[in-house]
């Protein structure tokens, strides 16, 4: 009768706090140190995927607003960055600071995993920030943006459409009112594009609250596939604009006078205004610069 020999891996003492610090430095490394390489790799990859998925989705769905997705990706990235070290610490404490030694429980493997985790994280952030950026507004862009608002810039180059809000090279916010080759006429406080007056309506109280606006002078203007808030001019003036080839006709959302309208070359556009990520003065997350309409007006 043959004897059965049971072979068990050697035990090893690990430091729970070292596991915590390793996962703080590189997501998933504390799990690898604790003998759970698969879970460590999952933390590393999930954090990177959360960041890269938004630019990929944006590039595959041109013109779709991704402000909410950006906020979710940032939240997931932060959550994994916090949870990975906490989970590594808790698991090490639960196991009494002892693990079964695996083949990857070596310093060279730890160094290799840390390098891979750092590289993948950096690459994912480079991809993300090549498509999007954030900045704190120092000026009022009436009616929507207040000083201190954190604005999202979509830097993916593309053709823009009527109704979109964009940033010029100085990061002023401008609204595209007409495309290259179109004609705009502002007369008697009414804006017309190619001979058709843009539809206007009054915001309901609920809609103003959703935009966190209280100005009674704010009206809703419909242009192309978008609806957005503007403050109509109190002055009567007539301005006809016929841009040169390749230029967009743009205006501020506060139509004070003729200087509120100008022309903008595509090369002078820094990116589209994706939305307000956070408004400290209004304690509000995600305010969009325009609403998408089911059908263009």
Number of DSSP E strands: 18
Q: What's the overall geometry?
A: elongated
Question: Any idea how many domains?
Answer: 2
* Distance separating the two termini: 88 Å
CATH structural fold name of the largest domain: Umud Fragment, subunit A
Biggest pleated-sheet summary: 8 strands, antiparallel
Structural class: alpha+beta
**CATH architect. name of the largest domain:** Ribbon
Total of helices? 6
Name the CATH homologous superfamily of the largest domain: Umud Fragment, subunit A
Order of helices and strands: EHHHHEHEEEEEEEEHEEEEEEEE
CATH class of the largest domain: Mainly Beta
Low-pLDDT regions: 1-8
Strand content: 25-35%
**Overall pLDDT level:** 90
Question: What oligomerization state is this entry in?
Answer: single chain
Radius of gyration: 27 Å
The helicity comes to: 25-40%
């Amino acid at each position: 009768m043959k004897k059965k020999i049971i072979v068990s891996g050697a035990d090893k003492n690990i430091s729970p706090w070292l596991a915590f610090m390793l996962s703080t430095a590189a997501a998933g490394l504390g799990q690898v140190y604790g003998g759970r390489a698969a879970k460590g790799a999952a933390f590393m990859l999930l954090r990177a995927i959360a960041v890269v998925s938004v630019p990929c989705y944006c590039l595959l769905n041109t013109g779709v607003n991704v402000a909410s997705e950006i906020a979710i990706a940032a939240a997931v990235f932060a959550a994994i960055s916090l949870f990975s070290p906490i989970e590594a610490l808790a698991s090490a404490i639960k196991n009494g600071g002892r693990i079964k030694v695996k083949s990857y429980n070596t310093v060279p493997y730890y160094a290799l995993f840390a390098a891979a985790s750092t590289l993948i994280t950096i690459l994912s952030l480079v991809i993300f920030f090549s498509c999007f950026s954030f900045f704190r507004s120092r000026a009022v862009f009436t009616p929507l943006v207040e000083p201190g608002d954190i604005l999202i810039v979509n830097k993916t180059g593309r053709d823009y459409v009527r109704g979109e809000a964009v940033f010029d090279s100085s990061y002023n916010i401008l609204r595209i009112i007409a495309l290259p080759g179109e004609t705009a006429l502002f007369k008697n406080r009414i804006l017309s594009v190619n001979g058709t007056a843009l539809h206007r309506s009054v915001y309901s109280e609920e809609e103003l609250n959703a935009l966190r606006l209280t100005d009674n002078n704010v009206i809703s203007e419909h242009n192309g596939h978008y609806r957005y808030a503007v403050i109509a001019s109190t002055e009567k003036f007539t301005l006809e604009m016929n841009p040169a080839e390749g230029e967009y006709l743009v205006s501020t959302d506060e139509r004070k006078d003729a200087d509120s309208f100008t022309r903008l070359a595509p090369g002078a556009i820094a990116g589209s205004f994706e939305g307000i990520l956070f408004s400290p003065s209004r304690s509000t997350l995600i305010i969009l610069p325009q609403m998408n309409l089911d059908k263009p007006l």
